[in-house]
Amino acid sequence: MRRILLLFNPASGKRRTERIRIIETIEQALRDEELDVCSIATAAPGTAGSQAAAACTEGFDIVFACGGDGTIHEAIQGMAFQPGTSLGIIPLGSANALARHLRLPLDPLRAALQQLNSPSQMIPLGKVTYQSRAGEASRYFIVMAGAGPDGALMYNMLGSGKHRLGRAMYYLRSVELFFRQHFSAFTVTTPAESTLAVSAMAVRVTDLGGLFSPLIRGASIDDPQLHLTTMATPARLSLPTWFALSWARLHRCNRYVRTHAVDTFHCSIGETHAVQVQADGEHLGQTPMTVTLLPNALRLLMPSQELQAPTPVALIRLETTPTPR
Predict the structure, then answer these.
(1) For the whole model, what pTM was predicted?
(2) Residue ranges per domain, the chain?
(3) pLDDT tens string for the chain (325 positions)?
(4) Is the peptide bond before 234 cis (omega within 30 degrees of 0)?
(5) Which of 28, 102, 185, 322 lies 20 to 30 Å from 258, alpha-carbon distance?
(6) Is the domain covering 3-119+302-320 a CATH 1.10.540.10 domain?
(7) How far apart are CA 63 and CA 71, in angstroms?
(8) Domain 125-297 is of which CATH architecture?
(9) Nearest residue to 101 (alpha-carbon basis) of 52, 70, 142
(10) Are strands 3-8 and 36-41 parallel, antiparallel or unpaired?
């Protein structure tokens, strides 16, 4: 009998009571499939990785990260290079970039059931090394890592109560940053060249979602190289040009933006100001930053688009049961 763990953050999101009810419904539905299932809440901020690692050691076949890209980011810290356990995704976040990339249903129960019969695949993971307050540190990432405006956005989101407004808070802070903040130039070095930039992003998914959807194209989580996008100075011209031409689908006309297929790259400290670093939507620290792609690092459930789960009785309950107040 396959052993499955549902790992979730009880303090995440706007509707915490509803989130727990959803987890309980999924747990019962998986038990109805004659699976050995249990659910565990994260013990504290930052513990999802160690709890996921413990599940791998204890012989669980699948660990479902129940949440958004931040929850997945925490889980992969403990599941990297643990080929005996597969990562599954229950989308409960606001962006759900990885779930959208995999074309999972955004209904949590449908997503869980669709992945039960899905094959698993070893995929690369990115590794970002950066400067934290305590010194040099490193993290794995699966969606994206970047330095510059995206790092500054995540830094400014700290303690902002982003869950109250969801994705709208990201948009508001993005506009505020553009008008108020100076983005320092820094040097991006690849094996082929060095260039001056105000932004460097390694993206592993096809769609970042919402207003950011058209900004990055051509990336994939199973790509054997990093899809690096750099943005040239000055930021006051390159940032709005990037948004405008991306939405007009005129990427090739943008002389400020370059894409590179690389295995690794390095970002220096900022010339005038500190340059913030983020990975998978989580602020990490500052440059200097080095990003490397590590092959065969994570076993991930890869749902086939032909596998469409039927609507079980549990799903009907999930859709019709009123939220407790």
Answers:
(1) 0.87
(2) 3-119+302-320, 125-297
(3) 899 999 998 876 557 788 899 999 999 999 999 999 999 999 888 899 999 999 999 999 999 999 989 899 999 999 999 999 999 999 998 788 899 999 999 999 999 999 998 999 999 999 999 999 999 999 999 999 999 998 888 887 765 555 454 566 666 666 666 667 789 999 999 999 999 999 999 999 987 766 666 567 778 899 999 999 999 998 888 878 877 877 777 877 788 889 899 999 999 999 999 999 999 989 999 999 999 999 999 999 998 754 444 444 344 344 434 433 3
(4) yes
(5) 102
(6) no
(7) 12
(8) Sandwich (2.60)
(9) 142
(10) parallel
- Token pair of 178, please? 């553009």
**Tokens 């407004």 appear where?**
165
